[in-house]
Amino acid sequence: MKAFVLSLALPLLLLAADASAATYRCGTKLASSGDRTIEVSNKCGQPNSSHFVGYTQVVNGIGGVQIEEWVYGPANGALYFLRFEGGRLSSVESKRQQ
Fold first, then answer.
1. pLDDT digits (tens, 9 = 90+) for 26-77
2. Quick check: bond before 47 cis, omega within 30?
3. Nearest 10 degrees: CA dihedral of 54, 58, 82, 20?
């Protein structure tokens, strides 16, 4: 019985994890986690500003990829901050303007 319940719960957990993926809507297009900077630029145009943040921490000799932040907006009263790690979209945050 436990195996049956777990087999039903696993797909739901995977769907929930996918729903939390970073996305940014630009017009009719959608930039999603894992998109390359060139793909986001083609979908959304050039950002209002972009900033080099630094590098990820090196762990066991692996890591050290570049972190960059792009800013779009204001759109609907909010600024959107897109974070790229190693040239791939990793997170999207929004902040309402005062």
1. 999 999 999 999 999 999 999 999 999 999 887 777 778 999 999 999 988 9
2. no
3. -160
Q: How far is CA 25 from CA 30, 31, 63, 82, in A?
A: 5, 6, 29, 11
Domain carrying residue 67: 21-96
Determine, yes or no, domain membership for 14.
Answer: no
Instruction: Tell me how many domains the chain contains.
Output: 1
Residue 76's closest CA among 2, 31, 26, 16? 26
Q: Where are the beta strands (DSSP E) in 1-98?
A: 23-26, 29-32, 49-55, 66-75, 78-85, 88-96
pTM of the model: 0.74
| Cα separation, 82 vs 12, whole angstroms | 27
